[in-house]
Amino acid sequence: MVRPLAQRLRVPAASPFGENISPPKEEGPPNPMTATPAQVHLLDHPLVQHKLTLMRRKDASTNSFRRLLNELAMLMTYEVTRDMALQDIEIETPLETMTAKVIDGKKLVFVSILRAGTGILDGMLSVVPGARVGHIGLYRDPQTLKPVQYYFKMPSEIEERDVIVVDPMLATGNSAIAAVEKVKALGPKSVKFLCLLTCPEGIAAMQKAHPDVPIYTAAIDRQLNDHGYILPGLGDAGDRIFGTK
Fold it and tell me: How do beta strands 40-43 and 223-224 pair?
């Protein structure tokens, strides 16, 4: 189920996981974080939230963390791709000829922000194995918290494809903003951003830089700490995926 941020994370919008429910009246002053609320989608299906909680536990092993992230990525892929265009084709079943729907247009592109984005990418490819894959190598300078690029490789004909940029965390937003900027420069049909966790600071930064890019996430946590980590968060996603903590 997806909960638009404008509804203060309480009321689900149309989703394959649930039904529509009319939103309640807004309470309190408007939050500046919701400047483009329709672009923020919280995936709060019970299975997503259950698996995320298991991942947050500091005693979760590398093996279980990796497995849970793979399962979560598969669940999240259903939502981030739910508005893909379809076309009708004629096929033959064992009994008769019929008109059926298939995905229209060029294959999707999943763009992984290295290195932690790979953990989400594997699960997504389990659901959409025909997707093309791009990679952007970025690391965060520990002093400035700004992204430094070291690798960039994209599929061909990206101007005819829809792109989903993936990274487990949208924290300061610097790496995600830089990655989306690089992808946009190639002129794709559309761009979305998928992450496991984010926070108000990350959302605000991404919306300021790329207000046209929808954000899909399993949780919006409280805040960033002085080192740019999400609180309460789940630690460094890359370290926990690859066992380098």
Answer: unpaired
Residue type, 107: K
Is 198 a residue of the active site? Answer: no
Q: Report the 10 Å Cβ neighbour count for 143.
A: 6
The residues spanned by each domain of the chain are 2-21+35-242
State which H helix or E strand residue 79 sits in.
helix 62-80
| 97 a catalytic residue | no
C-beta separation of 107 from 160 below 8 A: no
Catalytic residue among 34, 236, 240, 244: 236
Q: Is 88 a catalytic residue?
A: no
Please state, in angstroms and as integers, the Cα–Cα distance from residue 102 to each residue in 87, 98, 211, following that order.
Answer: 6, 13, 30
Q: Which of 93, 97, 99, 144 is catalytic?
A: 144
Please state, in angstroms and as integers, the Cα–Cα distance from residue 179 to each residue in 6, 147, 154, 210, 230, following that order.
26, 9, 12, 11, 19
For range 207-217, the mean pLDDT: 95
Q: What is the pLDDT of residues 155-185, one digit of tens each?
A: 999 999 999 999 999 999 988 999 999 999 9
Catalytic status, residue 132: no
Q: Which residues, 6+ apart, have CB-to-CB distance to 58 below 8 Å? A: 235
Tokens 């300021």 sit at which residue? 208
Q: What is the pTM of this model?
A: 0.81
Report yes or no: 169 and 198 within 8 Å, Cβ to Cβ: yes
CATH fold, domain 2-21+35-242, is: Rossmann fold (3.40.50)
Measured CA to CA, the distance from residue 99 to residue 101 in angstroms comes to 7
Encoding tokens for residue 137? 């190598």
